[in-house]
Hints:
Oligomer: single chain
Number of strands: 27
Strand order of the largest sheet: 21-22-23-24-27-26-25
Bound molecules: FE3-S4 cluster
Amino acid sequence: MPDNLIRKIIRKHLTSPAELVPGEEIHLKIDQTLTHDITGVMSYLAFEALHLPRVRTECSVSYLDHNLLYVDNKTPDDHIFLQSIAKKYGLYLSRPGNGICHSVHYSRFGIPGKTLLGTDSHTPTSGAIGMLAIGAGGMDVAVAMAGFPMRLKMPAVIRVNLINRLRPGSSAKDVALEMLRRFTVKGGLGKVFEYTGEGVKTLEVPERGTIANMGAEMGATTSIFPADEVVRKFFAAQGREKDFVPMSADEGCEYDEEITLDLSKIEPLIACPDMPDNVKTIPEVHDIPVQQVYIGSCTNASYADIKKAALVLKGKTVNDDVSLTVSVATRQTFRQLLKEGVITDLVDSGARITEIACGACPGIGQAPPTGGVSVRTSNRNFRGRGGTADAKLYLVSPEVAAATAITGFITDPADILGDLSALGEIREPANYPIDDTMIIAPPADGSNVKVIRGPNIKPLPINTPPAERIKAKISLKAGDNISTDDITPGSAQFSSMRSNIPLIAQYAFSRYDPDFVSRAKEFGTSIIVGGENYGQGSSREHAAICPMYLGVKAVIAKSIARIHKNNLINHGVIPLLFQDPADYDGLSLGDELEIDDSNSQIRSRKVTIRNLTKGTSFRTKLDLSDIEIEIILSGGQLSYIKKQKKA
Ligand code: F3S
């Protein structure tokens, strides 16, 4: 029977069950993993706890790319730890300055048709080359590195039929924003977007990467493009043609849903504060004065992205009231842009070239001014994401960002260039300057390598199994779309604490509700109440570990984002869903809740909760598989695996 591309790859990697039913749990063999310096330490601490001599994947890569601001000892200590771990356990290590994980991964390691699990929600970027690439928490990746299959709900596969081609001035970013406009930040939950159609051929690999990358903003499990002639050419340009495998959907296959996007009708778009789906056209916002422009990130800092921005800026200067920073995604493309004089053009215009890293995207440096407006080519504009709580972040293409930097107002590139045809002529190079000297391959035997642990690296806290009778007060009542940035903020200050849970836990929800930590400590045992899409955004499992460390036993929400839900399960926090969402309204901060006979209620997946403060009760449910139930009852994934090993 003809199959779509997603199902073909899944079938090849399926360890159980035999049939693929959307919404049912499937178990997949993982070929490759990636981690980065912000989420990696927790993942490797979990891997160490499994006591294996070496990773069991085909290829695992540890990237040092997010926090390269060594403001004190913490981050360099983490980097040294990660480097020694890579040597000991058989991972490749991409050194600081080599590039952002996703951009380097699809360029240097990715293989069409393989599975990739990464400790980053934008891991689906490698869907650009026909990989099944999924973001997960650190514990899930540790388990995959140990050779265990990954648990996943079989997603519905949505065909996105692309027709025609983009007009110059419109870009892959605008396609991603158009998808967000249609689907919203919740519209991809439980779904995979498979891009097909004649229009696909007009998009180069990094453009496909931009679109696959921002599928994460819709909550999608992943996004994928076929591995076609465009991908083959990209692999040839990377000197890796031998790794190319053609992959596409079978003729006449079926999808769960289909939509068509006419690329020729896509216009320059902008995501307005504070959500990536708050999408408008440029004329709707063009009067807004801008203080900062950032061109960079794994979304939009490819060779062609930077060259297009430089073309708009060439011969002009950055507006007096704007700070423009540019950060190229990989060292490889940076070298090519240097050789061609593109970096010189940018510097001449007044752009500040910052390190090849994530940097400003997660708020590590380049924070906007108080109440400022920052226009960015990255993928998230949640409140506080840029490092300044009251700044307003707008998301655009590199062309719009460059035009905006010149005028100081949100500007269409057509207003600067007039004739946009030169933008349309910019393509990826026929050959990239290949130099992998900043990728360290592991030794054949790492058994004698000593792991170097700085003082900031604290042991991974382990939860306990749920008590038979849980009595806990509500320590936080949150609204809809709480992101993991709201739970554990980014920024250089917080990012350097990620290896030290006792320390970073003191800042949980600090931007959302500064009293949360003291309240949670006072209550001792507590429960968080959330609205829709609780835990959206970044895959950081600190958003589950920190509340757990502070005594949070359960989250009760209207819905919980996929990766965050897995992180809660992995750390033994019960992810409850309201049976009737209206019951959310009857709960108040400080209410004392009680769950009796918790173990059998959890097993039945129906949990009745009594509100002792109000004398009421309400019903919740657990959308968990049998294994996930056992993980929760064990107090988390590590305890569950240890129990399995003993059995
Ligand atoms: Fe880095 Fe931002 Fe991408 S943090 S991995 S550039 S989403």
